[in-house]
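Q: A reviewer asked whether we had any structural model of the full assembly, not just the individual parts. We don't, so I'm hoping you can provide one. Inputs are below.
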Amino acid sequence: MDFRFSEQEEKLRQEVREFCQKEPPETFPCEIEDEGYGFGGWSRAFTTRLGQKGWLSIAWPKEYGGMGGTTMERFVAAEELAYHRAPQYGHLFGDAVATGVLRYGTEDQKQEFLPRMAKAEILFSTGLSEPGAGSDLLNTATRAIKDGDYYVINGQKIWPTGAHLAEWCLLLARTDPDAPKSRGLSTFLVDVRSPGVTVNPIVDMAGAKSFTEIFLEDVRVHKKYLLGQENRGLPLVFEALEGDRFWGRCLRHAGSKRDLEELVEYVNESKYDGHRLKDNQTIRDTLAELAVELEVSRMLNYKAAWLLNKGASISWESSVVKVLADELGQKIASAGLDILGPEIQLEDGSKWARLRKRFLFLYVFCRGISLAGGTSEIQRTTIALRGLGLPRS
Amino acid sequence: MDFAFTEEQEMLRKIARDFLATECPKDTVRKMIKDEKGHTTELWNKIAELGWPGLIIPEQFGGIGGSFLDAVALVEELGRACLPGPFHSSLMGTLAVMRLGSARQQQELLPKIASGKLILTSAFSEPGTGYELDHLECQASAEGNEYVISGTKLFVENAHVADLMLCAARTKHDGRQEGIDLFLVESGAKGVIRQPIETIAGDKQYQVAFQGVRVPEGNRLGETHTGKDNIRKLVELATVLKCAEMLGGAQQVMDMTVTYVKERVQFDHPIGSLQAIQHHCANMMIDLEGMRYVTYLAAWKAGDNQPFAKEAAVAKAWSGQAYKRICDLAHQCHGAIGFCEDHDLPLYSRRAKTYEFALGDSRFQRRFVAKEIGL
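A: Here is a predicted structure for the entire assembly that you could use as a starting point for your response.
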């Protein structure tokens, strides 16, 4: 047992830290603001800059534009960036797509996509859910019908993050409607600028436009963009979701550490009703409890990263990561608002609403984080079935 | 980064698990709760033969020379089996002698501990004071070559079978306070009065009154004064070991519950196929995984001589709550059968609360964590 990062990993962390000091991440423009998942906002400019540094492709093989490093190095860099609230939203999910391409893609696909993804010349979204297929992906109705060298795709996707900002989409569609539900699905790499594709952002209850819906009308996708075997798309999707759950939540502790530090600073400096907040035992206990949960979340994120780095499956471990991360985010936002009090609603810039910008948004947005990427209930079922071997209902 | 135990540690765990399965079945555990002594000499002797009392004692003193993580690996298994008896309390005493004892004390005591012939325990907490140590009232006044100890201690584990107690007391020389020291006091010494406490777990804890107990100066642990910080470090090590014991117990509760819900059929299906039950089990698993790795982190840091006070507090704060939640859900999953006295589950759910109290409950730990995060 050894919970130290390697020298190489620490060196990279130091490099990232210095980079964040020299080129403060908050100076890069964001197309989507930080929604509190832990990975910051969506920024094409920052993603491009990371691509120049080679930090989008740390763990990919060199022949495809990667750095030939390890998944743990990739994680350490992302963790350090997350602490600095760097906008990683735009590319972090690309890791799950890249893993799929590396594992299931043809040589041509690897050559075509990975070097461009490494440089942020193209970004990916993931199109899985549909109006009738949310948690139940087997219900996917979007159809892809073979027509010579092409597939013609018709259907509707809902909730892909950032499809309006990305060029490509990993898309799940039904290629054999007669086969059993799980056996007729395939995955495609689809250029969302193709004729017949319409992408509309969805305005969520926090007023953000990160989710989208995609309409596909007779979209012609060349067969060379079929990822993996026809009708065998499901294992790929499950692996992608595993990666999606992990990369989408594994940085929560780093982001939340900053939130907690800001709350501690606020409590140390503030008075209410003539009493110093830091003398309030309830507030102290609440913040300490959050610090404890943050440590738990951090260790389980590290454990999943360690497994992933070994090439092991994280089928249920990534669900543990997600449940803990989402609940931690919700608890910090909620405790934050309790501590900051009603004045948080005053106008931006008011000295009584110092942490307004972050916490008010976090509070409203965090309702969605235990839904996005699979609800907490689905995660718990996954833990029960895959982690504990309980029988299916 | 490496989240796994070494092969040797896994071997130790397996040996312990197999040994305890045969030598310490649950009927024995239940019997020992009602037994006045609380353990059998026969089992203790077998444990001594395995070398466990000397697991972390250096080879030069007749021990195995294992690491702190080895001890954590073993204690986890003991917790899984609910091992009754003085092993845990003696281990804390062993750590005290190893870390703070003088060369002479180590030479004299450690070989006896390693062979299982000498059993220790520690007497820290007092009525009205927990483990903060700042408000201890027990006094040790110097009189010639002796100290006279007066005060009352609570929750002294296995005081009835321990040969020596490590008593924390304020030393006083010529009426001047000198800080806190640890004293080796023979349990049968004149003026030592031991009264059993009926704990929720039914483990053997005692209230011990020291009524003008005289001990030679040489029984003060260490060459110089022990000091509060050293004692606190000792409590922190014991806290990590307690978390490991709780972790083993929680793992067993998880395993028992999973087995039960797969077998128990209602409405023509195993109840483990019902989502209400599945989600209870998933929540148990999340709590358990959390217990495991915050405990291992604290244990690794402690064994690696890094500061680990915060990690120990985090581990105990989480484990205290998580173990209870795990047991609560296990009871829900087991239904009425788990509510019977002769079922295994109450052995754990009762311990969960007693162990949460031990060495400072979750709220106590969070008070410390609050300071650590800068409040």
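A: Points you may want to mention in the reply: Chain B is about 50% helix and 20% strand. Chain B touches chain A through 48 residues (CB under 8 Å).
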